[in-house]
Amino acid sequence: MSLFIIGDVHGCFHTYLKLMDHWEPKTETLIQLGDLVDRGNFSPLTIRLAFEVKKVFKNSVHFLRGNHEQMMIRYLQGEPNSEHWLENGGRETLEQFKAHKLDPYFYLGWLNTMPLSWENKNVLISHAGFSGVGSPFDIHNPDGVLWNRKPLIHMGKLQIIGHTPLTGTNPEYLEASNSWNIDTGAYKGNYLTGIKLKKDGTLIEVITIPTDPRDIEHKNTLPTGMVINNKGQNISLSN
To answer: In the β-sheet with 28-32, what is the strand arrangement from edge to edge?
Structure first.
């Protein structure tokens, strides 16, 4: 099976659907490298679609955890000092769940099962990549695979990452670390990128989809100004 790897979606559901049209389930393993949620207008629908696709295709589909999923998990679990998610897209995401009459807590168990990386003998995929600083799989490590902004180290495999949005149309390959960054800033109104590879890491195709305007314009808000807090209670956002 070849690989089809999708970058940071960030709630851009309609753009995500257009890119998913390029997936060939019979011949391609699908891997999404995290940050399905926040920023765009349709985070609940991206979560629901990913959840249903994983349920149907099971072992041929892998949704990795990004830092925005990690923030969402911590908030929904009521962990201390987790309210900063609200200022990083979480406030709007909770409003969207309420508007779509979906329960974010329904997906919490699944979010907790999201792995931090996927790899085979030749390819290594994670949200933010390997910096060589601290433990890469420590979810609290600012230089780990959820949060890293430092240059990547060469891991002896082709790395595919997202996390740090690029400004151009195309993903970026860096020879020094043998890595691709495929976050082309969908939520910024740029592009959502997918990259197709042979299982040995050979590039087959890069697909860039312009952000659908519906995904980012006229941010959805609720007239009531209410969201669900991390204790499952309604709270006002109007004050």
So the answer is: 61-63, 28-32, 2-6, 191-197, 203-210
The answer to whether residues 162 and 181 touch, using CB atoms and an 8 Å cutoff, is yes
Please provide the DSSP assignment of 150-196 as one string: SPPPP-SSEEEE-SS--SSSS-EEETTTTEEE----GGGTSEEEEEE
Token pair for 57: 């295709």
Report whether 183 contacts 167 (CB < 8 A). Answer: no
What CA–CA distance (Å, rounded) separates 200 from 193?
20
Q: Which domains does the chain have, with CATH numbers?
A: 2-236 (3.60.21.10)
Helix locations, the chain, DSSP H = 13-20, 43-57, 67-76, 90-99, 108-113
Number of other CB atoms surrounding residue 37 within 10 Å: 31
Query: Can you give the pTM of this predicted structure?
Result: 0.90
Q: What is the spatial distance between Cα 182 and Cα 163, in angstroms, rounded to a whole number?
A: 9
For 63-80, what is each residue's pLDDT tens digit? 999 999 999 999 999 999
